[in-house]
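[step 3/7] inverse_fold.run input=structure_tokens len=111
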């Protein structure tokens, strides 16, 4: 409610007042205040949008838990696939090093 009140007050300060010599400065300050309040309101609304509504009933709770478990499984599958790629890459590096070592060893024996 405070955000709405600050928007309202800033908007009221933007309106010209008869016989007020500082009305231009006051209006400029009000525009900055209004802009800041709009930014805060935007942040607040984005936070509300990110919140999930609370599930209602046993079916909704169970459905939400299933979705969370499926997402967790997908994350774990991606991690496993990444680990397998890393293992295959390191196995190839080790194999190359072993071949290089054998080649170097046999080249030294032939001299």
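[step 3/7] decode complete -> sequence:
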């Amino acid at each position: 409610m405070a955000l709405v009140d600050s928007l309202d007050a800033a908007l009221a300060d933007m309106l010209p007042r008869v016989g007020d010599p500082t009305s231009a400065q006051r209006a400029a300050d009000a525009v900055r205040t209004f802009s800041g309040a709009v930014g805060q309101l935007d942040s607040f609304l984005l936070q509300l949008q990110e919140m999930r509504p609370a599930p209602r009933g046993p079916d909704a709770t169970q459905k939400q838990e299933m979705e969370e478990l499926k997402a967790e499984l997908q994350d774990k599958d991606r991690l496993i696939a990444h680990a397998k790629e890393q293992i295959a890459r390191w196995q190839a590096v080790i194999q190359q090093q072993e071949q290089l070592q054998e080649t170097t060893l046999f080249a030294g024996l032939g001299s």
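[step 4/7] annotate
The longest helix spans residues 57-110.
Residues 1-52 form one domain.
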